[in-house]
Specification:
Elements: H1 2-24, E1 36-47, E2 52-61, E3 68-79, E4 82-89, E5 93-95, E6 100-109, H2 115-122, E7 129-139, E8 145-155
């Protein structure tokens, strides 16, 4: 009886170890190419003196030959070196293989102390405003990883300001 219980415990331990080693083969993290994330638009939803609401519109491109589950994004966005927004979004979606997906993140901020710089930048609507996007994309569902990103670009305010 004692030997039978010992044998069952040993077999259970061996099966658990084999299962854990087998799970490593299911992961594609070694073959994962970093997705490209771009800020494509900043929409002003509501602007009051002490509080502004924006919608940041992003595009994520998947260079991999398999679909990429995304379960969130951490981000910091600067416009002309002024921090516009910082936060975390728990949006979940799947980007198809060699495809892209657009998604939006609502943002609430207070730009009061930077108002002069922003107004000065908007005085010349044909001049580009530089932006910096930094953060991490959380990929995978169960054993995911964070893919760090950093991107610089420009947006032209005149393209978004109605006449």
């Amino acid at each position: 009886m004692f030997y039978q219980a010992q044998t069952i415990k040993i077999l259970s331990l061996i099966m658990c170890v084999a299962l854990l080693f087998g799970l490593g083969g299911c992961s594609t993290s070694g073959d994962l190419k970093s997705p490209e994330v771009r800020l494509i638009k900043v929409d002003i939803v509501k602007a009051k003196l002490l509080e502004q609401h924006f919608t940041l519109r992003f595009r994520i491109d998947n260079p991999n030959s398999f679909s990429l589950p995304v379960r969130g994004i951490d981000y910091v966005v600067h416009l002309n070196k002024v921090k516009l927004a910082e936060g975390e979004s728990n949006v979940s979606f799947t980007v198809p293989a060699h495809g892209h997906h657009n998604f939006s993140v609502p943002v609430r901020t207070n730009l009061w102390r930077h108002l002069r710089q922003i107004v000065k930048a908007l005085d010349k609507p044909d001049q580009p405003i530089s932006y910096q996007l930094q953060g991490a994309v959380k990929t995978g569902w169960l054993f995911g990883q964070s893919v760090h990103m950093s991107r610089n670009g420009e947006i032209i305010p005149g393209d978004y300001i109605p006449e």
